[in-house]
Amino acid sequence: MQSSGQSPRVQPKNAEFVSKTDLTTEITVSVYLRRRTDGDYLKDPEYWGKVLPPHREYFGYEDFHDRMGASREDVGQLANLAEQQQLQVADINYARRCVRLSGTVQQFNRFFTISLNTYRLNSQEYRSYEGLLQIPAPLENIIEGIFGLDTRPVDVKRNYYDGFNEATPFSQISILKNLYNWPQWTADGQTIGVLEFGGGYWEQSGQAVDAELSFGFNRLPMPGIVSYSVDGAMNLPGEEIGADNETILDIFMAGGCAVGSTIVVYFAPAIPSEQNILDAFDAMIHPDPGQPRPSVLSISWAFLEFEGWLDMMQVVNTKLEEAANLGITIFSATGDTGSCFTGGDGNPVDNKAHVCFPACSPWVTACGGTIISNLIGNTFEEKTWNDTGGGATGGGISEVFDLPWWQTWSNVPLSVNNGKKGRGIPDIAGNASPYSGCILYYYEQFEYGGGTSAVAPMYAGLIATFNAGLSKRVGFLNPTLYSDAGKSCIRNIADDGNNSYSGALANTPYYNSGPGWNACTGLGVIDGMQLFHLISMGVVPRNQMILNDAVLIYLLEHGYEWPDWTGPFGEILTLTSLVRELLQRVGDKELRDLLTETLAAMRIKLRAPLIAQRNAYHSERFPAHQ
Q1: Residue 617 sits in which domain range?
Q2: Does residue 332 surpass a pLDDT of 90?
Q3: What is the pLDDT of residue 589?
Q4: Other CB atoms within 10 A of residue 22 CB
Q5: What is the pLDDT of residues 443-455, one digit of tens each?
Q6: Residues taking part in catalysis
């Protein structure tokens, strides 16, 4: 027997041991396997910075599943060993690399060399075990994760912030879109997925009543709304008002910002286990044939990043990377309680700064919050969201995920807890304060929606609209945003605000919002049309990053024409500014060094005939620039 490689299970300090779990209890466990070893590889992470969306090559769903799923040999080996212990193979999903095994507690105790116990935490009982589980030696390098043995609830938290009656909100979402310079075309044919843990929307005669009233008040057409059940959870309004409000806010912001789209609401259990969370991400990223295939996902729920969920977080993170390879863009809220990110009960867990998952995953675009004020026509002020006695934008430094390569040049600070370098969130920000929120209909009355929960679906709507305009998926967004050209499409929020939270424990550290990237508002607020122009330009030809000191010679010899190489606003690049522009748009450090050497070499090595050729071409095509 071998250790599974998973983290040892340690029960919370306030958990109470109840008893050994009944050995005859029937349970179902999800076993996640490695990708097939004879298939393709995921794109190199730096690929997403080298190639802009119009030129990216994504896997098709069936193609990805066939070439990147689990192998039949690995599944067969697991099935054979499980059946020797009288465990049954309940389901096989090659695309998700997931095999479900069913059997009794006694059989699973024997198969994984553990002792399943029943514990009680906050009056709720759950099943778990202590220490490391063991797996048969032949499966040592095959299994990536085992979930379902431990049913401890994950303390998920919605990031919807309740409105204020004294607010002065926008009467219509169209005003917000105009302030952010968003495209005016529709998102016809696009599908956006939103994830909910519990909650629902009221239906009457097949119509979503509260959603319809919200859209009607804002003079917007209703999107198509589809409910999708994860592990038996359904659209059940009335169980918890806050969760219902979250659901309506997500539908409204996504559908209002992507007119003509379809919103798929993935309903997962209100008190989820690790297994439930993985099933939800599987449904969104690796849908079964005939199920919805969203091109953009919005996640407004989150849970505290901490080591107790490390195994599940790592498996979800691999799925988020797979989503990038399928061309899916993912936005996630960073929280509404400042730097401390409270638990699901609204109380701080300690006096340290914390970030939440999945926002802290490097494969997610994390969304922080701002507040808009002094709106007169199209002029306004926008600052870091931190309402006195109310909510504040989440953000900080991850303790789990390393600093991604595309944040290397963004001066991400070290953690205020321990000086650790890590992934910084948020990446971008948008209107989140209920004091400048949009009006929605909840429970027979109009209220003002807010929170970073409003920002994630808002940006999901923007990218769905981009996808419609491009007739292609934008996909993974972060490397484009963090390029110098991307930053020119983002309005920095540097108001000297902070994300200290009024409900935090004494001496809880926080972050300030200064110039450049900061842990309150990230890079800032996206200018919609500027970003669309950058993305749609496709300034870097597919698979043609130049690695030698004769960039211009290479370009001309390989048939590239100068109009293909323009600056952010369409200006024609000169000899050296071409390479400077490449330097600004490339994240690969080795390539940046090579291009820097090229820039120096070009000043003395370019041949006169080549210069004359370029000048003649430029003169003929662009006489106004002479």
Answers
A1: 544-625
A2: yes
A3: 60
A4: 13
A5: 777 777 889 999 9
A6: 246, 250, 453
